[in-house]
Amino acid sequence: MRVSGRSCRRQSDTTVLINPVVVAPTIAAVGLSFYSYGFPRVGTCLEIGAVQILLVIIFSLYLRKISVLGHRVFLIYAVPLGLAITWAAAFLLTEAGAYSYKGCDVNVPVSNIISEHCRNHISRMKQCRVDTSQALKSAPWFRFPYPLQWGTPVFQWKMALVMCVVSLISSVDSVGSYHAASLLVASRPPTPGVLSRGIGLEGLSSILAGLWGTGTGSTTLTENVHTIAVTKMGSRRAVELGAIMLIVLSLVGKVGGFIASIPEVMVAALLCFMWAMLTALGLSNLRYSEAGSSRNIIIVGLSLFFSLSIPAYFQQYGISPNTNLSVPSYFQPYIVASHGPFRTKYGGLNYVVNTVLSFHMVIALLIAIILDNTVPGSRQERGAYVWSEPEAARREPAVAKDYELPFRVGRVFRWVKWVGL
């Protein structure tokens, strides 16, 4: 009984801050934060972007139960199928001259265009045509990336603090994703050590991404939880094989050039679907808690509303009211950095606070984590995640096999607490 008591106390300590009521609005806010970019960008070439959105919806919802050779092709490949069909249609329209206007050249800067006729059509030419990017032509067939290929990284403590906060948000996302994935593959929930190991490896991968100059960090993709649910495939071998294929393809420059040549309106149409999925998957974490509880409804509602409203307040300082400049939502926090409402004599502090409070997911996390951990609620009502105990996991060979590191690497690092079970 004493051992059981210690186990309960350890699990309670592990989950006291991060629970489904915190994870749900935080992940949802990540998806909702791009609402001002999605369809406004699709609207620049509506016949391409809207068709792609409709195709993905039709494939993933209306045709999801149709099987081809025993596989639900339309459900599993809804996004690539929609992209391929739309890209092919846009290519045919471009080749047929649907977006060619007499005397107008898409490569001429807008500032150099004198003709009013061309000014009225230049936006559609740039957004609808598939041949405006030179990425595919200019990309080499083979290229071997190497560390520091873009020069020595520049360190700025202000941006480093901002990225630390963003990394914290991604870690909260990972907590929910790890737990959901374990339930989908019918395994025991991960242990606190496995959770720490996963987040630590995300940090290590982000360091490697910085050395290779990718411009983005590494984190758990919440949409992959949906992929596991759809494909019923949770094999680590499949993930390892996919990773090897992606590494090999990264060496073929034409593949990257082709991806970079996809028109932005098509990318925005895909992201409309993906961000909507991310929002829904975030809110689905509430199924682990009492979703109908008035306590949880108020906390989630306040977190989501203020995650949109407070950044809007900060972002209104970023652009002068006398200009018609439209800035994508993902750039706005950095524009607010120097002009936000938080102003002290310390410029660095102003930069960090104005930038951080302009991120939707930061506001959602702050409000949710404060309210969920200060408003009284039972463990069942909060839906506290349950984590497996290391001792119990080691006694079950199947569970140990699910979570151990491949190639017996874990045995070498047994002395590191967060690497083992």
TrEMBL record:
InterPro entries: NCS2. The chain crosses the membrane at residues 16-35, 41-62, 74-93, 241-259, 265-284, 296-314, 351-371. The keyword Cytoplasm does not apply. Its main location: membrane. Pfam families: Xan_ur_permease. It is a multi-pass membrane protein. It comes from Camellia sinensis var. sinensis (China tea). This is Nucleobase-ascorbate transporter 12.
